[in-house]
Write a structure and sequence with these properties.
alpha/beta; 183 residues; elongated; 7 helices
């Protein structure tokens, strides 16, 4: 056992006498961690908010609560605009997606919650296909906002939106036809 301890002691003494080895072993990892922390981490910087638009065609108390809950979400920057202007914002790439709350949404949401055979209202989602992740984000924000907005969260439906790169002229009648065809 003594020869093993003597060998270990000799190696430790030789290692501690080598200043370069000590510098590389102790200082280099600290400097590398400090460099990456400086470059990648800024505790004052907030994450970027994804710009989305919402067109509230209903104007009911239910849809107003959903819009306010969406505005309070830190992940998105919500802009409330009229539907035609919002579609142009999506086409021009100013916003990633658009959620259209249809007229009669509040009343239909209440009916869908209370009556078993009632038709659930749908929120149309328009998006830029190069920003497909925005669909998942807006669905999640809508579901969360619906939960905060009351009973409407249980009846929010999926995306029946339009791909505006492939179909630049989507009118109200065509959107309605798509919703009927998709149902």
């Amino acid at each position: 056992m003594r020869p093993l301890l003597a060998l270990a002691r000799a190696d430790i003494v030789r290692y501690l006498s080598n200043r370069r080895a000590l510098l590389v072993t102790l200082a280099a990892p600290i400097l590398i961690a400090a460099f990456f922390g400086l470059v990648l981490g800024d505790p004052q910087r907030k994450p970027a908010r994804v710009p989305i638009a919402i067109a509230d065609l209903d104007g009911s108390a239910v849809s107003a609560r959903i819009v306010e809950a969406m505005r309070a979400d830190p992940a998105v920057a919500v802009e409330v605009v009229a539907e035609p202007a919002a579609i142009e914002l999506v086409r021009n790439g100013k916003v990633r997606a658009l959620a259209v709350i249809p007229a009669g949404f509040g009343a239909a949401a209440a009916r869908a919650l209370l009556l078993p055979g009632a038709i659930k209202p749908e929120v149309a989602i328009h998006y830029d296909p190069s920003q497909a992740i925005a669909v998942s984000l807006i669905k999640g924000v809508l579901a969360e906002a619906g939960d905060e907005g009351g009973h409407a969260g249980r009846v929010l439906a999926g995306d029946r939106g339009a791909d505006h790169r492939r179909d630049p002229r989507v009118g109200a009648e065509e959107r309605a036809a798509r919703r009927v065809a998709a149902a």
